[in-house]
Specification:
The chain is built from 8 helices and 22 strands.
């Protein structure tokens, strides 16, 4: 091979290398920019970027999943259905399979019935939302009149929980929004990894939470969620193999110590949380006469306890946005009138020095106030310490509700 041929081949190789690198960068940028726009609610701007990322083949199946959600938010249910179907058929082992399959079944049901309205069908079927009232209603939220409010978007990852983008002492990070956590906390390994500088105080503590207790050091930090900023104690758990708080991706968890004195509205359809500062009366709080869609709660420490019905049997549960599903400890089953069915699926998770056994099955019906879900997936954890069952995201997903700490009520908004 001559020198001229060698030089020509080298130039071709360099051009192809640059093209491939540029193409990969464009692809990754399309996915990152598209998901960022989606989380801000800019669906029309996000759509072409997510479509491009999906077509290029990188970040799959996540790019297809965000594309499906984008179509759904824009009301193109057929394209959304086809995108969810693509995940189910081509990526059956993906962590996104279960949620995609659930959304696929829901959209197929709505399209076959001719319903193209946002939200879930009220005609029945697996995991669907039904209303206890004879007619669907839309409950007004007049409590938001006046006063300064702060709106923050959130995303749902494959586990179905609620993740907020924010800043902790000048460091960008994600936070898990967790009504089942009494305090705001993180792990020491998170502090080390992000190199967060904390103002430590001479206080040690026990972290209260739905899953038990853990020793921690305490610091003061500044947390910003959009334009809403406040100083808060943060409890830093020293990493240990039997931790009760295996936070996804090792991120901070925002608990009741941060937002428990705020009124907040969760819009599960649009992926938004709106916070409002309110004045909470001193002394015991009584809900008074309940309005349409209202459910009372009481505090057990920092936990919000609601009275739900499990297969029409009343059961106190912790209102827990940080739980990816409805969760019982094995000792809770009898008090809620449940038995382990023979077809329950079992699993064992083994970590460093710890073993956790669990099993899962479906309950026929779970009701809280005006919200009635059928065929609800639940998990049962064996030998765990949380005091009451957790009302998690397999029940709360896609709902719109306001938590009012002035009256200790949760006000659900339902739709025609």
């Amino acid at each position: 091979m001559g020198a001229r041929q060698s030089l020509t081949l080298l130039l071709i190789f360099l051009v192809l290398s640059l093209f491939c690198a540029s193409n990969a960068n464009c692809e990754e940028n399309a996915f990152d920019k598209g998901t960022a726009l989606y989380k801000k609610g800019k669906y029309e701007e996000a759509l072409p970027l997510l479509r491009s990322a999906s077509a290029l083949g990188m970040s799959r199946p996540s790019s297809i999943y965000y594309l499906a959600m984008c179509y759904q938010q824009l009301g193109d249910l057929k394209q959304a259905r086809d995108s969810y179907k693509l995940i189910c058929t081509q990526y059956p082992n993906s962590a996104l399979f279960d949620r995609s399959f659930s959304m696929l079944k829901d959209l197929e049901q709505r399209l076959s019935s001719g319903s193209t309205k946002p939200g879930r069908s009220s005609t029945g079927g697996p995991g669907v939302l039904k209303l206890n009232s004879a007619r669907s209603q839309s409950f007004p939220v007049s409590v938001w009149d006046g006063g300064e409010t702060y709106q923050v978007s959130y995303s749902r990852e494959s586990d179905g929980r609620m993740y907020l983008d924010g800043i902790l002492n000048g460091k960008l990070t994600k936070f898990l929004f967790d009504t089942g956590a009494g305090v705001t906390f993180c792990r020491q390994s998170f502090v080390n990894k992000l190199e967060v500088k904390l103002d430590w105080i001479s206080e040690s503590a026990i972290i209260p939470g739905a899953m038990g207790e853990a020793p921690a050091k305490v610091a003061i930090c500044k947390i910003s969620l959009g334009k809403f900023t406040r100083e808060n104690k943060i409890y830093v758990e020293q990493d240990r193999p039997d931790s009760y708080y295996p936070a996804l991706d090792n991120i901070p968890i925002i608990g009741q110590s941060f937002f428990g004195d705020l009124m907040y509205r969760v819009d599960g359809r649009a992926g938004l949380i709106t916070f409002k500062k309110v004045t909470i009366p001193k002394g015991p709080i009584k809900p008074g006469r309940l309005g349409p869609g209202e459910v009372p709660f009481f505090r057990d420490g920092a936990h919000m306890i609601v009275k739900a019905k499990v297969n029409d049997r009343e059961c106190d549960m912790i209102f827990d946005t940080g739980a990816s599903q409805v969760v019982f400890a094995d000792r809770h089953l009898a008090q809620c009138g449940l038995n382990r069915p023979v077809d329950a699926t079992s699993s064992t998770k083994r970590g460093s020095g710890s073993v956790r056994d669990s099993y899962a099955f479906k309950i026929d019906r779970l009701t809280l106030g005006p919200i009635d879900r059928q065929d609800v997936n639940v998990a049962v954890l064996v030998n765990t310490k949380f005091s009451k069952p957790l009302l998690g995201q397999t029940f709360l997903k896609d709902l719109v509700y306001t938590v009012d700490p002035v009256r200790n009520v949760i006000r659900f908004e339902t739709f025609n």
